[in-house]
Write a structure and sequence with these properties.
four-stranded antiparallel sheet
Length: 153
Amino acid sequence: MPQLPAIAWACKPFEQLTLTELYAILQLRAAVFVVEQSSIYQDVDGKDLSAFHLTGTDNGRLVAYTRLLAPGISYKDPSIGRVAVAPSHRAFGLGRQLMMRSIEESYRLFGKNALRISAQLYLKKFYESLGFEAVSAVYDEDGIPHIEMVKSR
């Protein structure tokens, strides 16, 4: 695996994002979820306003992102969603580092409680390697097979 670049991490509530940061987040999410995965859906769903936004930048360019939600916004448990790594940085194992940071930040923000995700089915083994377990049958979300998973405390 190639050497992982030095990633600068930040976690901010919506109100603290600059317009440039918000633009980069929406651009990365659209590039990965709408264009690359050919999934037409309403990405801007109102939850961003209540979320914490974990960003990873390489020389000022956003290359990794997750949205961290408090209990009661998407699920009864805190949740991690909109997990995205720029195609240019996928060969470095950045997805694992991003999820480990997301778990740590969720615990810091919401307490060390169970975490819930809606995972794309093809990533089930990846999430299992991070301690998540499937808790639902496979379901369709925006034309892509998903499975709900939980990481217990």
